[in-house]
Write a structure and sequence with these properties.
Layout (H helix, E strand, L loop, with lengths): L2 E4 L46 E2 L7 E6 L13 H5 L19 H18 L5 H29 L7 E7 L8 E7 L5 E6 L7 H13 L9 E6 L5 H9 L3 E4 L2 E6 L38 H8 L4 H11 L19 E12 L9 E8 L9 H17 L26 H21 L4 H9 L7 E12 L2 E6 L2 E6 L2 E7 L20 H25 L4 H19 L27 H14 L2 E9 L2 E9 L9 E3 L8 H8 L3 E4 L2 E7 L31 E14 L5
Parallel strand pairs: 2-8, 3-9, 6-7, 7-8, 13-18
Antiparallel strand pairs: 1-19, 4-5, 5-6, 10-11, 10-14, 11-20, 12-15, 12-21, 13-14, 16-17, 17-21, 19-20
Helix pairs in contact: 6-8, 8-12, 9-11, 9-13
Protein name: LPXTG-motif cell wall anchor domain-containing protein
Organism: Actinoplanes philippinensis
Keywords: Membrane, Signal, Transmembrane, Transmembrane helix
Length: about 725
C-alpha cells in the first residue's frame, strides 16, 4: 500500500498583511526567455527513464513565495448599483502580467467589479461573497505556478547556458493549439518540464498533446524527447498511472508556496506566538477547538473551508469559474476544480493529544475521492459534525446517551441535553432510516420482497404476522494506540433483531393491532427467514450506504471520544475541562431540529405503515386477497480490540503526512489538521476508570430501537356465483 500526497485546494480568503523582512527574488516567466545561469552543473535529468517516478530530494522541502494580486480584495464589500453603472467591460481594465507585475488596487478592484457585473447580467446565481472569494483565490494561482517553475529551475540548476528556456511552445500534431511547456531544453536531447504546484496534477489535454509530440518524434532511441512532470505533491494513484503509461517521468519536488501581496516582501521567521483567541460563538465554528483556542490549521481545514456548502453551489461555482479563463496565460493550465474529495464519506480516523511539548490536538480524516466529473461539496458541514460529536460524547457521561422512540412515551424521546445536538439527531434519524430500508427490502412488489413473503409461514389461519424490533450495536472495532494517539482502522456496526409483540392498546395501533405470535416452530422459522434474507442486507446498508454516512461519522467520533475520556483519567489532556462536564451548549445543532418532530414522523410511520399493498389472485372460482402491511440504534456496547502496530502497515506514515498535505492511500484521501496551542489546565482526574491498552471498551451510547411490524393477511374468500 502506497500513500501519495495531494495538496489541498489553495484558498486566499483573508487579506492578512504579514510581517515582511526578506526581499523576493523573481524572474518573469516570459515565453522563450532563457533561464538564469548557475555555477553548478545541472541535475542529471538525461538519466531518467521514461515513465519513472522519482523522488530526488526525499528529506528536503522547498519553500517559496508567490504574489497573490487580489489578496487585498478579500474583504471588499459588494459594490452599490451606482458604482456598477460606471463599470464597463472586463477588457477595459487590463492588468500587467508576469511574476512580479504590480497593478494599482483601483484597477484590480474595477476589473473584479466588471467580472461581477457580467456575472449578474448572464447568470447571477452566486452571492457577491462567493464570487469574490473565488476570484481572489483564482488570481493567485497563475503566479503560484510561475513561482513554482522558478523553484524547479533553481532546484535542478537548469541554466540558460545549457539551453534551458521558459514557456516554450511546441507543435502538437492533430491539435490546433501548441503545447506550452513551463521549462524546455533546446540544446541536445530535448527535455520538456511541466510543473504542477497545486491540487491539479493531471490535465488530460496536456497529456494527449504530449503523446502526439512523442509519437511524431523521429529521433533515434535515447535522443527522443524526454517529457517530465514535476509535482509539489504526488498525484492520485489513478492519475499517476495515466502519466507513467504515457511514458511521462513524474518527479516529486516537495514545495510549499506562501502568498504575498505584489510590491511586498515575504515574511521572515514567524513572530512569537500570541495568546490564542477563539471565535465569539464559543468555538462551534471551528474544527476540534474550544473557545480558548485559536482555529485549527492543516490541510483538512484548508480543504473544508474551500468546499462549496451544497451541490447547487458547487455547480454554480463550476460555471462561474469558467469566466476567469482569461486570467491565465494558457487557459489549458486552469485547474478543473469540479472534483477532488467526496466529503459525504468523511470520517475521523486518527486523533492524538499533544505529547512531548507539541502544541495542539492532531487529527486526521479519511474520505473517498470523487468520481470523474463528480462535484466536491459539503466539507465544512461534515467536518463540523465529526468535531461537534467528539465534544458532545466527551462532555456527557455515558449514562446520558439514550434515546427512546416508544409510541407510548412522547415525553421521553431523548436525554434533554443530547436532544440539543446533531449527534442526538443522527441517532434518531438512523432509526427512521432503518425502517425505510427494511420496508424497501420486504416490499412485496420487489423480487427480494416476494421471495421473503413466500418463505414465511402463517401464524394462524388468517395471516402471517411478525413483529420485530431491530437495533444497531457496534461490532468489535479495530484500533491501535501509539505515541499518544489512536488509530481507528475499522469500526463496523451490527444490526440485531428480536421478535416483539404488543398487547392491545395504544402501542398496538394501526398495523400492530391484532398481531399475535404463532407457535414456537413458526416463530423460529420466520425469524430465521428475516435474518438470512433481510437483516444481512440492512446491516450491509448501515455500514456502506450513503444514507447512513452520518451515523458512521458520529460513531467514529464516539470511539475517539471514549478513548480520550479514558486517557484523561491519568494524563493531563488538552480537553480535560470538557470531559464529563455535562455542558454541550457550545456545540448546538446546526440544523434546527426538534426531537418531537422526529418522534412524530416515527409515530406516523409506525401507525400508518410504510406500505399497504393489496394483491388479488383468482384460482378457479376463488379470489384470494393478500394485504401486506409494514409498519433503533443502540450503541450500548462497542467492543474494541488493539491489533498492534504491525497490522497498521503504512497507516502511521499516511496520517503523519496528512498533516502537511492531503494523502491518497488505498483509494482513500486523508486530510490532517492540528488544533491551536493546548489551553493551560491543571492535571485533573476525571474518572476512577483506568485506561488499559488493548482492553475492550464499552461505549454506552443509546437505547434506540425500531419496532418493525408487518402483517400478511389472507382473507375474504369470495365465491363467484356461476349461475344467477
Amino acid at each position: 500500500m502506497r500513500g501519495w500526497r495531494r495538496s489541498a485546494p489553495a484558498a486566499i480568503l483573508a487579506a492578512v498583511l504579514l510581517l515582511l523582512t526578506t526581499p523576493v527574488t523573481t524572474t518573469p516567466a516570459l515565453a522563450g526567455a532563457k533561464c538564469p545561469i548557475f555555477d553548478e552543473e545541472p541535475f542529471d535529468l538525461d538519466s531518467l527513464k521514461p515513465g519513472a517516478v522519482v523522488d530526488p530530494f526525499p528529506d528536503k522541502r522547498f519553500d517559496y513565495f508567490f504574489f497573490a494580486p487580489a489578496m487585498d480584495l478579500a474583504d471588499l464589500p459588494e459594490p452599490a448599483p451606482e458604482v456598477l453603472d460606471a463599470i464597463t467591460e472586463v477588457e477595459d481594465y487590463k492588468l500587467k502580467k508576469g511574476l512580479g507585475a504590480v497593478n494599482p488596487k483601483e484597477l484590480r478592484t474595477n476589473r473584479l467589479y466588471a467580472y461581477w457585473k457580467r456575472h449578474q447580467e448572464t447568470d447571477g446565481s452566486l452571492t457577491w461573497e462567493q464570487y469574490r472569494d473565488m476570484y481572489v483565490g483564482n488570481q493567485g494561482k497563475p503566479n503560484q505556478g510561475n513561482a513554482f517553475d522558478q523553484e524547479i529551475i533553481k532546484a535542478f540548476r537548469l541554466g540558460g547556458d545549457k539551453g534551458w528556456v521558459c514557456q516554450e511552445k511546441v507543435t502538437a500534431p492533430g491539435f490546433d493549439k501548441k503545447r506550452v511547456y513551463d521549462v524546455f531544453r533546446k540544446k541536445g536531447r530535448p527535455i520538456s518540464i511541466e510543473g504542477k504546484s497545486g491540487e491539479e496534477k493531471f490535465v488530460q489535454e496536456q497529456v494527449d498533446k504530449d503523446k502526439a509530440i512523442k509519437k511524431a518524434d523521429t529521433r533515434p532511441a535515447g535522443q527522443e524527447i524526454l517529457q517530465i512532470q514535476v509535482v509539489a505533491d504526488m498525484p492520485s494513484e489513478e492519475d499517476l498511472e495515466t502519466l507513467t503509461e504515457a511514458n511521462i517521468v513524474v518527479v516529486l519536488l516537495r514545495a510549499t508556496g506562501t502568498p504575498v501581496l505584489p510590491g511586498s516582501d515575504p515574511p521572515g521567521n514567524a513572530a512569537a506566538a500570541t495568546e490564542p483567541t477563539g471565535p465569539e460563538d464559543g468555538g462551534s465554528g471551528q474544527v476540534f477547538t474550544t473557545p480558548d483556542q485559536a482555529p485549527s490549521t492543516g490541510t483538512a481545514v484548508t480543504a473544508i473551508a474551500t468546499s462549496p456548502a451544497t451541490r447547487a453551489e458547487a455547480e454554480q461555482l463550476r460555471k462561474a469559474r469558467a469566466e476567469f479563463a482569461g486570467e491565465w496565460d494558457d487557459p489549458d493550465d486552469m485547474p478543473d476544480e469540479t472534483g477532488g474529495i467526496d466529503f459525504s464519506t468523511l470520517e475521523l480516523r486518527y486523533i492524538a493529544d499533544p505529547v512531548d511539548g507539541d502544541a495542539g490536538l492532531k487529527y486526521s480524516f479519511s474520505a473517498k475521492p470523487t468520481a470523474d466529473g463528480q462535484l466536491s461539496w459539503g466539507g465544512l458541514a461534515a467536518a463540523q459534525q465529526a468535531s461537534d460529536a467528539f465534544f458532545v460524547w466527551m462532555a456527557l457521561r455515558p449514562e446520558h446517551f439514550w434515546v427512546n422512540l416508544n409510541p407510548n412515551e412522547p415525553d421521553r424521546i431523548i436525554e434533554e441535553r443530547l436532544g440539543t445536538t446533531d449527534a442526538g439527531r443522527v441517532l434518531l434519524e438512523a432509526d427512521l432510516q432503518m425502517k425505510k430500508t427494511v420496508a424497501k427490502l420486504i416490499h412485496p412488489d420487489s423480487a427480494g420482497g416476494r421471495r421473503f413473503w413466500d418463505a414465511l409461514r402463517n401464524t394462524d389461519d388468517e395471516q402471517t404476522c411478525l413483529s420485530f424490533r431491530q437495533w444497531i450495536v457496534p461490532d468489535t472495532a479495530t484500533v491501535h494506540e501509539q505515541d499518544g494517539g489512536l488509530y481507528i482502522v475499522d469500526a463496523p456496526l451490527i444490526v440485531k433483531s428480536e421478535t416483539e409483540y404488543f398487547d392491545s392498546g395504544d402501542a398496538a395501533e394501526g398495523a400492530a393491532a391484532g398481531c399475535k405470535p404463532g407457535d414456537e416452530a413458526t416463530e423460529k422459522h420466520n425469524a430465521e427467514v428475516f435474518r438470512s434474507q433481510i437483516l444481512v442486507k440492512v446491516q450491509e446498508a448501515v455500514n456502506t450506504a450513503p444514507e447512513y454516512a452520518e451515523l458512521r461519522r458520529v460513531y467514529l467520533s464516539r470511539v475517539a471520544a471514549e478513548w480520550y475520556r479514558q486517557r484523561s483519567t491519568n494524563h493531563n489532556t488538552a480537553f480535560a475541562g470538557v470531559v464529563n462536564s455535562g455542558d454541550v451548549s457550545r456545540w448546538p445543532s446546526r440544523t434546527g431540529w426538534t426531537p418531537r418532530e422526529v418522534f412524530d414522523r416515527y409515530v406516523k410511520s409506525y401507525t400508518d405503515g410504510e406500505f399497504n399493498v393489496t394483491h388479488r389472485t383468482t384460482t378457479g372460482n376463488v379470489v384470494e386477497t393478500r394485504t401486506y402491511i409494514y409498519g433503533g440504534v443502540d450503541f450500548s456496547r462497542s467492543p474494541r480490540s488493539d491489533v498492534g502496530a504491525a497490522a497498521l502497515g503504512g497507516l502511521p506514515s499516511t496520517v503523519a503526512n496528512s498533516l502537511g498535505g492531503t494523502v491518497e492511500d488505498g483509494g482513500q484521501i486523508w486530510l490532517g489538521g492540528v488544533s491551536a496551542d493546548r489551553p493551560a489546565v491543571p492535571f485533573k482526574v476525571t474518572s476512577l476508570l483506568t485506561w488499559l491498552a488493548g482492553a475492550v471498551m464499552a461505549l454506552l451510547v443509546a437505547a434506540l430501537f425500531v419496532r418493525s411490524l408487518w402483517r400478511q393477511q389472507r382473507r375474504r374468500r369470495e365465491w363467484n356465483a356461476a349461475r344467477r
